[in-house]
Amino acid sequence: GGTIHFDRVCFSYDGQTPVLDQVSFEVAAGKTVALVGPSGGGKSTILRLLFRFYDPTSGGISIDGQDLRSVTQASLRKHIGVVPQDTVLFNDTVMFNIRYGNISAADDEVVEAAKAAQIHDRILSFPEGYNTRVGERGLRLSGGEKQRVAIARTLLKDPAVIVLDEATSALDNQTERLIQDSLRTLCADRTTLVVAHRLSTVVDADEILVVRDGRIVERGTHEELLRTG
Ligand code: ADP
Ligand code: ADP
């Protein structure tokens, strides 16, 4: 499951200024769609509507054919896992941090999520490299590695849909490469919506939507968008 459908969605925060204008797209189950475009174009607003912080002014949004207006935020939280751009990690092991929010998960499930996110080699490391219990210093996790912990935490929840939200971050090369890898491997058979600044971050998306001034002004694969400039 996990098909997302936006059907001619219009939205305004103040009831006057249009922020989204007839936005239509579909993310088929298991596919990856990326939203890219300049700041202020409407990408975050699309996510806020998907999380039901607001409802569309007109048009409709559905997940697996069910209109979002009949879905609670609590239920959405179970179905949509968000990997935020900056996850605050605890001064405890990577294992602990992955399990956070899923305390009932068995060790082998946590290890499996860590493997999928390619952070299992650091599973007993501390994010800042300082183990307060043992009093030892080790290598701190890089930004990209912290992002992998956040991805593993989300994978452990096993949501039907994953949202990678990079809307407001200036990605370092390492994190950008990680997101490219994520699209290829860990999110391979999950419905994934990724929000990014640059086209180069989302080379492997099945479809890229260019959002500008509240509209989808272009759509296609990375190759197709490069061809049309
Ligand atoms: P993006 O994520 O692509 O940067 P946003 O969805 O944040 O774009 O913004 C789209 C438009 O909506 C912008 O003009 C922005 O100023 C406006 N906007 C965003 N959030 C709010 C808000 N909470 N109230 C009013 N206007 C908003
Ligand atoms: P902002 O741009 O203000 O950070 P976004 O529109 O990017 O907000 O939405 C991300 C927010 O959604 C997070 O702050 C988080 O609290 C909330 N959130 C995270 N996961 C879910 C979910 N599954 N369902 C609803 N809301 C969520």
Automatic annotation (TrEMBL):
Task: Tell me the GO molecular function terms.
Answer: ATP binding
Q: What is this protein called?
A: ATP-binding cassette-type vacuolar membrane transporter Hmt1
Q: Which UniProt keywords apply?
A: ATP-binding, Membrane, Nucleotide-binding, Transmembrane, Transmembrane helix
The family classification in the record reads: Belongs to the ABC transporter superfamily. ABCB family. Heavy Metal importer (TC 3.A.1.210) subfamily.
Q: Tell me the superkingdom of the source.
A: Eukaryota
The record places domain ABC transporter at 4-229
Compartments in which it is found: Membrane
